Amino acid sequence: MDEQLLSAISKRHSTRTFLPDALPEDVVSQVSAFAQGLELPFESNTEFQFFKSAPGKGLYNNGIAPANGIALIGETDLVSISKTGFAGELVILYAASIGLSTCWFGHYKLAELGKYIDGIAEKERIKETSLGLGYGYGDQVDVGKRVICCIPFGHGDENAKRLIDRVMKKLGANRKPLGELLDENTTLSALPPDIAEVLDLARPAPSAGNSQIWRFGYNKTTNVLTIAKPIGYKHFKWEHSDVDVGICAAHVWLGLVDKGYKPKVTVEQREDRAVWVFELNQASE
Ligand SMILES: Cc1cc2nc3c(=O)[nH]c(=O)nc-3n(C[C@H](O)[C@H](O)[C@H](O)COP(=O)(O)O)c2cc1C
């Protein structure tokens, strides 16, 4: 399975214009079974709610949805949202591996989503987001469980790609070189070659606005790899970059497992960010 997910990294890209038809039930069940059976290397409270929506423009501000979607629901502390990114990306890669198109959407319309899933779109929560959008644009931190992101999945409409798809595809192909993704204490020359290869696999990970805000740290003495956003970082439009860091961590984890590592994985909040710690000398439980 890990190999299947790893080889899907090069197949995945964001699709924003989908064919409207619902997927056959057995295909949806296949994705759902993968999501529900996910074995993560840490404790997690992420839930996956599979839903069907009216296809079209109702749910996403800049996307044409298919009939099938997944709502990623989790606690809103930084560690939990980052873990949600990790779990969601494994599902996205699985969907890509069986030929489906997907896109992460942080900006979905909460009121619209509330028509398809019970109990997630209380009035106070809708008010909390100007424009009624999802878990971005919030005026304040929402505590408790909520929908962190949505993932439409289906077949992309290749004939109807809009400007946003073309622009974003270009952006999507545009990834920072590894040297720009290292934290202030880490240099390229300090990275063992196999770790550099693993980090290379994390470069194509998706991020909101293609911000690629993850920074890798590596300590040779302790053989510990870390991933986090820089302290104080804020994206102008997406408030939850720790989700993106978790997405990147999923790629790193797949790469490490492929190289034969069984790292102990922990995620902790340090200052204003979630920090992923991969202890490469340790075996996971
Ligand atoms: C957490 C997250 C939230 C995102 N939210 C949106 C969104 O609301 N609308 C959108 O069009 N794209 C969204 N994207 C998709 C990114 O724009 C896309 O991943 C990035 O440009 C890289 O392109 P690629 O996925 O094709 O490699 C999101 C991506 C992530 C990881």
Task: Write structural notes for this entry.
There is one protein chain. This protein is α+β, with helices and mostly antiparallel strands. The chain has two domains: 2-164, 3-Layer(aba) Sandwich (NADH Oxidase), CATH 3.40.109.10; 175-279, NADH Oxidase, CATH 3.40.109. It is built from eight helices and eight strands; from the N terminus they run ααββαβααβααββαββ. The protein has a four-stranded antiparallel beta sheet with strand order 1-2-4-3, with helices on one face. The two termini are 19 Å apart. 42% of the residues are buried. The model has no long low-confidence stretch (mean pLDDT 90). The protein binds flavin mononucleotide (FMN). The site of flavin mononucleotide has 22 residues, from α6 and α8.
In short:
The chain has helices at residues 2-8, 25-36, 78-97, 110-113, 123-127, 163-173, 193-202, 241-258, and strands at residues 47-52, 68-75, 101-102, 145-154, 215-219, 224-228, 264-270, 273-279. It is globular, with a radius of gyration of 18 Å.
Topology:
Blueprint: H1 2-8, H2 25-36, E1 47-52, E2 68-75, H3 78-97, E3 101-102, H4 110-113, H5 123-127, E4 145-154, H6 163-173, H7 193-202, E5 215-219, E6 224-228, H8 241-258, E7 264-270, E8 273-279
Antiparallel strand pairs: 1-2, 2-4, 3-4, 5-6, 6-8, 7-8
Bound molecules: flavin mononucleotide.
Each distinct ligand: flavin mononucleotide
CATH hierarchy: architecture of the largest domain: 3-Layer(aba) Sandwich
Helix/strand-derived class? alpha+beta
The strand count comes to 8
Radius of gyration using CA atoms only: 18 Å
Q: What is the C-level CATH assignment of the largest domain?
A: Alpha Beta
